[in-house]
Amino acid sequence: MKREKTEYGYIDYRKKRQFLMTFLMVLIGIAIYFLGRALNKGESSNVFTVAAILMVLPGAKYFVNFIVFFPYSTPQRAQHEELKALLGNRGSLYSDLVITSPEKVMNLDFLWIEEGCVLGVLGKDGQELAYIQQYLSQNVRNWASDCRVKILGSYQELLKELTEQMKRSEKEKTEDLKKAKEYIRSLIV
């Protein structure tokens, strides 16, 4: 089943898809090469050999994407279900985020966006929390100036922060919120 960016299960889906597409490009390249040899009486010097070699380009694209996603995994389903139950229809819950910046590839398990607030939790241990916090804060403010961004180090911290947010009154979504959502989605690989 196809998964879209920000949907639960996206990282695992994307890793499988990129690996299969890499394998498919290799098989197509090999098939083209041997077809060319068969049609040209065993000679390798033909246009089919060139076409087979060119299959490396899309294969490399898929393989690089696989390498980017390889260290990360989809968070636990129980955590996702718990967050959905806690949040209900309030705000937007994103899952399985792999975000790129010029310097780093970052992973967030969950990101919740509501009026004036973006809350996230690190996906993989060992990431620089301060860098991710600063990068997202700076760039989200370019799109939605009133948005507060807070990235947390653990799932338990996220639950605590979300529980506090749920106590506050619900506000109507504005244009800034839509822009913040669009920007976050544009960052995701």
UniProtKB/TrEMBL annotation:
It comes from Acetivibrio ethanolgignens. Keywords: Coiled coil, Membrane, Transmembrane, Transmembrane helix. This is Uncharacterized protein. Residues 152-179 form a coiled coil. The chain crosses the membrane at residues 20-36, 48-70. It comes from the Bacteria.
